[in-house]
Write a structure and sequence with these properties.
Number of helices: 3
Structural class: mainly alpha
Mean pLDDT: 77
Shape: globular
Largest sheet: none
Number of strands: 0
Length: 84
C-alpha cells in the first residue's frame, strides 16, 4: 500500500506538524525566545556523549528534533545518490 519513502515523508510531515502545534501551544504560555539559541545556552559541556547532548537539546528546543531528522534524511539521500 505505502512504500518506504512515502511512509518516511508522511512521518516527517506528521512530526513537523505535531512539533509546530506543540511549540505554538507552549508559546502561548511563555514569552517569545530568541531563536536560534546560542550553543552555550544549553549548558551541556559536561555531557560526554553526542546522543546525550542531542537528547538534552531536543528537550530544551523540540525544533532540534525536526532539524536532526531533516539532516539525516538529507545525508542519507546524498549518500544514496553518490553510491549509484
Amino acid at each position: 500500500m505505502f512504500s518506504g519513502r512515502r511512509l518516511l515523508v508522511l512521518g516527517l510531515g506528521l512530526s513537523l506538524c505535531l512539533t509546530t502545534l506543540a511549540a505554538t501551544a507552549a508559546g502561548l504560555l511563555r514569552p517569545a525566545m530568541d531563536f536560534p539559541l546560542p550553543v552555550d545556552s544549553y549548558h551541556d559541556q559536561q555531557i560526554p556523549s553526542l546522543f546525550g547532548k542531542l537528547t538534552g537539546r531536543i528537550q530544551r528546543e523540540p525544533l532540534n528534533l525536526v532539524a536532526t531528522i531533516i539532516f539525516f534524511c538529507d545525508h542519507s539521500h546524498v549518500s544514496d545518490r553518490s553510491v549509484s
